Input
Amino acid sequence: MRYQLIGVNHKSAPLDVRERLAIPESRLPDACRDLTAHPGIEEGMILSTCNRVELITHTTNGAADLRGFLHHHFHLTAEELDAHLYEFREHDAVRHIFRVASSLDSMVVGEAQILGQVKEAYAVAHSIGTARGQLDQLFTRAFAVAKRVRTETEVGSSSVSIASVAVELAKKIFGSLQGKNVFIVGAGKMSELAARHLMAHGCASIFVSNRTYDRAVGLAQKFNGQAIKFDDLYSTCDRADIVITSTGAPHAIFRREHGEQFLARRKNKPMFFIDIAVPRDVSPEMAKLDGIFTYDLDDLQQAVSSHVADRHKEAEIAEAIIASEVENFKARFEARRYTRDVVPTIVSLQDHLETIRQAEIDRVRGRLGHMTPEQEIAVEALTRGIINKVMHTPITTLKTAAKESEVTTVIDLVRRLFNLHDKETGPASQAKETSNKKE
Output
């Protein structure tokens, strides 16, 4: 089991570090290819969300220099990055992936979005061939574990989420959300979820702007809202009381000068910005303006933490499920590994005995004289039956031992008993030996 994982998340690194590591969806395939081109990495995928960036790999020896990859790929020094990194290997990496997929490592424990994000990241890596056999096995099981946690616990039953906390903060600022206007910038899933919560609490109308106008139209239709072309964003944004922004832009799209313009046109009526983008869409300078209230993901995390105490008991049940699943995954992996260990010996034994059978038939064929087809079939059946009975006990013993820790000892014993040690067997080797004798 040579799984190796490294990353940062909302608990290990502040937002200004996470946004320097964020990988846009369009660049994810190339980043995965770069990862698997790094020395010692056989398979790899990258999970990049607003709250985490993680490299998940299967390596040649379990010790690839993933820190070196991060330093080189993101042009960051060890001093800038290493204090925020966590790293897991083997079954610890498996446990972490199971926990992430099951939303036990999320900012909001039990939120549903992370599983979809993991599936999308895996799909990208699988489609370009950087996630194959070993990562296929890991993530196929991770998705099944996440489903089990969701089914067998109530960890995702509470309504607490980043979106619901954002609604509470907006209500504190405005008193009531009745009649307020919402502007969505960026047509992502998290923005849509936050908008849905806000509309459910009485907001009057919604505007949607996105760099791809058709996506803005599609999302606006879900709320009977109005799509705004991205070029018209700054001239229309002041019409909103609440702005939800998540664009994936490399730099802030809302700066102090924009806030000043909005407030002037609104005659200093307050505006509330929910910035769930990484990197951030709203410059910290905006928050210095009287009448502009901004909340980024780190701010929302602090607000969320006071709402999730009721999930702790269910999370403990989920953790027990994951602990059991990790052990089962490890046991299955070991069984597969041991099976792979015994297969060459079984094949060698079969080839060895088949060679003996053929040689003995050839040796006595001259003394038997001409045989009818029925006699040939009878001899074939008789000798094969003897060989199968001879092979039955050692092969059964090998297959049973494949599940036990002494498998290496049993393999060695069988190879010694049948003289398979350090020696090729089968027709090919016999032909080689015959050729050597002639020379």
